[in-house]
Amino acid sequence: MKTGFIYTDAYFDYDYGPAHPLKIVRLKLTFELIKAYGLLDLPSVQTIITNRAEEDDLATFHSREYLNMLKQANDGHLGGDAYAYGLGPGDNPIFPGLYDWSLWSTGATLQAVDFVANGEGDIAFNIAGGLHHAMRSRASGFCYINDPVIGILRLLERGKRVAYVDIDAHHGDGVQKAFYQTNKVLTISLHETGYSLFPGSGFEYEIGEGEGEGYAVNLPLPPYTDDETYLWAFDEIVPPLIRAFKPDVVVTQLGVDSFYSDPLTNLHLTIYGYEKVLRRIKDLAPKWVALGGGGYDVSNVARAWAIAWAVMNGIELSDELPESYLKKAAKLEIYEKTLRSGPKSASSRESKDIRMEVERIVNYLKKTVFPKVLK
Ligand SMILES: [Zn+2]
Question: What is the pTM (predicted TM-score) of this model?
Fold first, then answer.
């Protein structure tokens, strides 16, 4: 088995701003941890230096008028009717080089896609991707360019059948919307319910339209959902659908904001639960294009994606973090000493009620989505 890790230090020329929760430095720390564990020196691993995407790549999904607005904003100044495109102070700030940053993160996703589609390898990981909220003509939820959609479109163009699995705490709304009316792409998103979290969508009754009916799948989870209930719901829904759909490639968005310690969200996964989800995905995916995603505790992101990359390469990591990484982490005031930390289960106050609600949703999906996909 061969794997590709797409990366460049050029990401660190960009910054959403000091008050913004999305810290690009988390990618650097992830890279440092993966490198410190020796996970880029494995014979099966190819490290691929990121190339920027072309404007025409972005235009496979985004409107030219929106791309022109992003290019205008690339100098860091608010211009024209930027607000109409979701740009401005707040979630989607106009920072210097925001268009260039988007070219890098999308370029890496396309390299991951090509690596897998060309048969160069079985799994590729772009930790800078997974910006799943961007819409055709609007920035949303820290996302300017929707690299998962652009990557999936490239896979479709190359004749591949694609399933998309999104485990970010936020609903993968931009990706769902792009493929809502087609049965060519199966999208599955597990996330905190839209009743309590941005973007306020992804309810179980959103199942696709027309030919796409049954091919958009949502598992909205109540706040405080823990590993046990999460994994139960995952097992009930995801493997049967993926097996029935028979994708050539599974594209995943691996957001790390589902953790109990994430500052922006309310799900209660632990790093142990996250690792189990990744093992399940590895078993299900014939080929795997893995993208990053959210994650607002920088230490969680580095440790979770190091584990993800180890799972992709069939390696079991020791819990002791490498010394060279600890020094780099300390500079960011991160002092955790172990790879896996925290409680083995972050069980919640109202776990019985949560379980009942999740069972209700799972049963609903079995009645509505399963008959369409498992036919
Ligand atoms: Zn998120």
Answer: 0.97
